[in-house]
Amino acid sequence: MAKVALDSEQIQHFMRDMSEDFWGDLEQRTRLAFKRFLEAESERERDRWCGLGRHERSAGGERKDMRNGYYERDFVTKFGTIRLRISRSRGRSHLPRYLEKFQRRAPELSLLIREAFVRGVSTRQVGRLLAVVTGEGVSAQTVSRLTRSLESAVRSFHRERLAGDWRFLYLDGVSLRVRGQGRRKRVQMLVAYAVAADGRRRLLAFMRSGGESQAAWEGLLEDLRRRGLSGQSLELIVTDGCPGLAAALQTVYPRVAHQRCWVHKMRNIVARVRKREREAVKAGAQAIYLAEDLGGARAAFRKFKGRWGAAYPAMVKRLEEDMPELLACFRFPLHMRRKLRTTNVIERCFVEIRRRTRPMVCFVNLGSVDRIIFSIFNRFNKEWEKRTLRAFTQAA
What we know:
The protein is an alpha/beta fold. The protein has 3 domains: 66-151, no CATH class; 160-252 and 354-396, no CATH class; 262-342, no CATH class. The protein is 50% helix and 17% strand. It contains 14 helices and 8 strands. The chain has helices at residues 8-50, 107-118, 123-134, 140-147, 151-159, 214-226, 243-252, 262-271, 278-289, 294-308, 313-326, 334-340, 344-357, 366-384; strands at residues 67-77, 80-89, 93-94, 166-179, 184-196, 201-209, 236-239, 257-260. The strands form 2 sheets. The chain has a 5-stranded mixed sheet with strand order 6-5-4-7-8, sandwiched between helices. Strands 1-2-3 form a 3-stranded antiparallel sheet, with helices on one face. It is elongated.
């Protein structure tokens, strides 16, 4: 028998065609089976309502209702759009128990829309994505309407009791753009992030404000205290050095030690020196927080002051004034200081917020701000339930 030689291109075409035929046929059969299931369920609902099955007669000649044919409606599923024949009686129509009145798409598709939106897909792109999956898209207005279902979850998040032995609190703010009346305006989002003694972490709260004033930060901190964060278990609060926040901490949590972020401080230091001396100044300042202990840090500052005090007296004086809050992390073990001397852990959350909100250009309204921020924070909190910060759990 003669052998037939097939080249690789022929084999690839054959496999692709066979795969398309197989999966296309399977998808069609699944869609048809789902359609028949829902239509049969609609007829069963009608029979239960009427009290009689097809071709049955009542003994006394009386019946609750009578069949009245069908009507058609489209239902969008993950298998595509299905046209269903819904049973009717003279008194009412009878949807399958899995469908609700005016429901046009399966619940999993609504979940897909919300999740895609939260993951960073714009409202218009979500519609295109759904069209690829189901063959039928949705408008940007529909996407916005579906995301409004998160409002009750947002309210619950703001009222949630803050149970747990939270030891370290990180506070910072991120700026977002919101459409105003005829113009865009900036809204500051104040955020609280906490870490427990065993390395558990959680984004506790966020609040919109017009800026980072003392009054705005006091509002967030008072809310944390009302919800259960009394401050008795807190050992350190880490901030970016905002004056309004520092003043608010003295009002709400005066007994808790305060650590200023070294990253923000280094930016301020480097910005005030000549370009040709920036690397040397930076290295001298870094030697302070990289010291082995508190004594070494103070010695490194004295060396820094002696080297740069004459050239930059104002900068060195300000650094000396801030030194107590910059060295607060030295009361903790060496393996924890890297996480405690900066606000980097909360800044990484802000990176995700900016990535997510970048496709939107700006928020349409303040409610959309809360929904997006809650969704991002809620996803972080769920991911962190099984992941602790190793720096807070490893042995010294």
